[in-house]
Specification:
The complex is a heterodimer of chains A (244) and B (479). Helices cover 52% and strands 12% of the residues of chain A. Chain A has helices at residues 9-14, 16-28, 44-49, 52-66, 77-93, 97-106, 113-120, 140-145, 151-157, 180-183, 185-202, 212-224, 234-238, and strands spanning 2-5, 32-34, 71-74, 110-112, 133-136, 163-165, 206-209, 230-233. In chain A, the strands form two sheets. In chain A, strands 2-1-3-4 form a four-stranded parallel sheet, with helices on both faces. In chain A, strands 6-5-7-8 form a four-stranded parallel sheet, with helices on both faces. In chain B, the strands form three sheets. A six-stranded parallel sheet of chain B has the order 1-10-7-4-2-3, sandwiched between helices. In chain B, strands 8-5-6-9 form a four-stranded mixed sheet. In chain B, strands 11-12 form a two-stranded antiparallel ribbon. In chain B, helix 3 (52-68) packs across helix 12 (256-267), helix 9 (166-176) packs across helix 10 (186-203) and helix 16 runs parallel beside helix 18. The mean pLDDT of chain B is 95. Chains A and B meet through helix 1, helix 2, helix 3, helix 4 and helix 5 of A and helix 1, helix 15, helix 17, helix 18 and helix 19 of B. The complex binds iron/sulfur cluster.
């Protein structure tokens, strides 16, 4: 299958390893990945911070690049949530009939990375090997907007060598929330403190999730504390061991 | 000096008030503990209902229908309530409501009233206004009594004293009720309150309450509660005045079948409320003879007119969104600078104040969606939050000050960059150069200037990778 990758602006810039892992895994599963170089950003940051006017052309731009894709794979549940939950609204409030139609036709072809594997390819074992103690943080958008449920966990459980430890209060927000982390830095830090405490209690070496945004936040405090836990996007775990 | 107030016109921005509260270790422990307990109870009784999601849908439908035809349902309620022997008054704002209540109480020469816990009376600051006019209000709800005796502010819709633990309550009661030997045993505390209040119930002839629901087709008023004090206030006085927001109306008596299932489960984790009181007009020889309802607008019709944020008025004040909210969990209600705290407060307060005050509240959320997930009438709070954020941003567009606003400048610049592939790729390269002086020996950034410094106050940031994904992709040769 021909899969168009929307890497997202921050993965492109900050977490290329996640993109490489997605490409490696989809390759391994026999698919062809295309990466439209025109892509930039879905508009989420602007939309969520109140800059709806600025988000609208970014949304239109995204659609014009991906509207003919067979399927679109996005390794970020918050960007998928932006597209699914708010593109129809943006189109409507701008009385943009064309966008309404294009969004409607595109949405069924948009998949978050673990959705693509479990829902579309019906896979739970992707042949990965990752001999580490790992805990999973359920990011808010994946959980409550995409309803990922235990899809990521089923993928992780099938990774050979992986010791999966349940994270207490895994469903509670880490406090990132985009610009919230800066605009409400104190509360955000307090929330992150609770999350980090739960992570340390698992004695895991790796904390994973479907969103690098949460992981960047969590990692920020773990690193500050010399905590001995690293964060890794789920794609990087699922792609591991490909050469073995 | 403390920044804490519940008057949105005077309140500090949320981040500042929150920063003060975050240092209160006792409050944070109390709030986290109390919300954990209620959430746990709620989850258990919600799990019993196989049709919970259908009940939420039904609740949302009922509330939407009421709002859709609010004018006619309110008129129908007025007709039915009047026919049954009551009187309906319309108040455009808080001052008018205060005036009406004061006038009604003066007519019966009241100098004291007993009260049932009511957010609406708190919204219009009724107790203070009555006190200034020589009428003393006695709160009869245990939590409200605690707040009143301690001159404290409410911090939760259902459990307004949830930021206090029982040791603190014991201390307060011992002091205010002159009971030096009181223990912090909950039954002992309840007994102390009971004895203190019993005398008022029997003596005071006028009562003031809110309303959970106003039923249009029968003209009934419904109040649910847990302690029985409310039942006393509703039945013992001669004069009873209920103050209710105009959105409290529901079309039909039969709608209670849904809402009286979802409200108690969401609010207190009970299958039904210990006391559900419903009264329709005056019955000779039984209950109050002088019966009034004050219908309060106070900004609500403006909210009603906006099709995106109208859903705010679906709220049945169960408090579930507060208990579920990870932000509220850290700060409790006082940081929200209004009587309505937590997620519902973050959307309701700014709108009640015509988007002129409380503009930091729509930003007081990480948009995690836990509120929406638990809301028994399916208010999409995150959707309304981001919508109100756009109103805040749009209000400031074109103002001179916005030219110097760091966030605004950054957002505008980012939008321009992201609209072009070339500019985006250039920005990625420039960022790698610009960050160089900030990157530590370990390859991480520990300090950033300006707004971004609020990130590095508690969190490190990894330096940019030497190659972006797209650079790798192009190099790989399949572009
Ligand atoms: S918004 Fe929903 S969850 Fe929050 S208090 Fe109102 S009804 Fe309850």
């Amino acid at each position: 299958m021909r899969i168009s990758l929307f890497i997202t602006c921050y993965n492109d810039t900050l977490f290329p390893g996640t993109g490489k892992a997605v490409v490696a895994l989809l390759d391994r599963l026999g698919h062809q990945v295309v990466f439209p170089l025109e892509q930039t950003c879905c508009g989420q940051m602007h939309f969520n911070t109140g800059y709806r006017r600025e988000a609208y052309p970014l949304a239109k731009r995204f659609i014009s690049i991906f509207k003919d894709a067979e399927v679109v794979c996005i390794p970020s549940s918050s960007c998928v949530a932006m597209i699914r939950d708010y593109y129809p609204e943006l189109a409507r409030e701008n009385n943009d009939e064309q966008m309404v139609a294009e969004v409607k036709s595109l949405l069924p072809r948009i998949f978050e990375f673990t959705e693509l594997l479990t829902d579309h390819f019906k896979l739970e074992d992707v042949g990965a090997y990752f001999p580490h103690r790992v805990t999973y943080h359920a990011s808010c958008h994946g959980l409550r907007s995409l309803h990922l449920g235990d899809k990521p966990l089923r993928l992780l459980k099938n990774v050979r060598g992986l010791d999966l430890i349940e994270l207490q209060d895994t469903e509670r927000c880490c406090g990132f929330g985009g610009t919230f982390a800066v605009k409400n830095a104190e509360v955000s830090t307090a929330m992150l403190g609770d999350k980090v405490r739960s992570i340390l209690n698992t004695r895991a070496e790796v904390c994973t999730a479907c969103d690098n945004s949460c992981l960047m936040h969590i990692q920020g405090m773990l690193h500050r504390q010399y905590a001995g836990v690293r964060t890794l996007h789920i794609a990087e775990i699922l792609a591991a061991g490909a050469d073995q | 000096m403390s920044l804490i107030t519940i008057d949105p016109r005077k309140a500090a921005p949320f981040p500042e008030a929150a920063a003060e509260i975050l240092r209160d270790t006792q409050l944070r422990k109390n709030v986290a503990h109390a919300t954990d307990v209620i959430q746990y109870k709620r989850a258990a009784v919600v799990a019993e209902k196989d049709d919970w999601q259908a009940l939420r849908d039904a609740g949302a439908t009922i509330r939407k229908e009421a709002l859709q035809h609010l004018d006619s349902y309110l008129e129908q309620f007025e007709q039915q309530f009047t026919r049954a022997g009551g009187h309906v008054h319309w108040a455009a704002d808080a001052e008018e409501a205060q005036r009406i209540v004061l006038g009604l109480l003066r007519e019966v020469q009241a100098t004291e009233i007993i009260k049932i816990k009511s957010m609406t009376t708190a919204e219009i600051d009724l107790n203070r206004n009555l006190a200034e006019n020589g009428i003393r209000a006695y709160e009869t709800d245990l939590a409200e009594l605690i707040l009143q005796l301690g001159a404290e502010l409410p911090s939760h819709l259902i459990a307004p004293a949830l930021h206090k633990n029982r040791q603190q309550v014991r201390e307060l009661f011992a002091r205010e009720m002159h009971l030096p030997n009181l223990t912090d045993d909950p039954p002992a505390l309840a007994e102390a309150a009971r004895l203190y209040l019993r005398e008022k119930f029997l003596k005071v002839k006028s009562g003031v309450c809110g309303a959970n629901f106003l039923v249009a087709d029968t003209g009934s008023v419904c109040i649910v509660e847990s302690e029985g004090n409310g039942r006393m206030c509703l039945t013992l006085p001669d004069t009873l005045i209920a103050i209710a927001g105009i959105e409290k109306v529901i079309p039909r008596f039969s709608n209670l079948e849904v809402l009286l299932q979802t409200l108690p489960r969401s609010a207190t984790g009970e299958r039904m409320n210990p006391y559900s009181s419903l009264w329709t007009g005056v019955t000779p020889g039984d209950g109050p003879r002088n019966l009034h309802v004050v219908l309060l607008d106070n900004g609500r019709s403006e909210i009603l007119a906006d099709t995106t944020s109208r859903q705010t008025l679906q709220c049945i004040r169960c408090g579930a969104c507060q208990n579920a909210c990870p932000v509220y969990r850290q700060t409790g209600g006082h940081a929200y600078g209004a009587v309505y705290g937590g997620p519902i407060g973050a959307i309701l307060t700014p709108q009640l104040f015509h988007m002129e005050h409380a503009q930091s509240l729509p930003y007081a959320s990480s948009l995690c969606g836990a509120c929406y997930e638990v809301c028994p009438v399916k208010i999409n709070i995150p959707e309304v939050l981001v919508y109100l954020r756009s109103k805040v941003v749009d209000q400031n567009r074109g103002k001179l000050a916005s030219v110097f606003n760091q966030e605004r400048v950054a957002m505008k610049m980012m939008a321009r960059i992201l609209l072009s592939r070339e500019r985006f790729e250039t920005a990625q390269r420039i960022a790698r150069v610009l960050e160089k002086p900030l990157v530590g020996k370990d390859g991480w950034i520990h300090w950033l200037p300006g707004l971004a410094g609020r990130w590095t106050a508690a969190r490190d940031l990894e330096a940019l990778p030497t190659q972006t994904f797209r650079e790798w992709w192009k190099e790989r040769g399949n572009a």
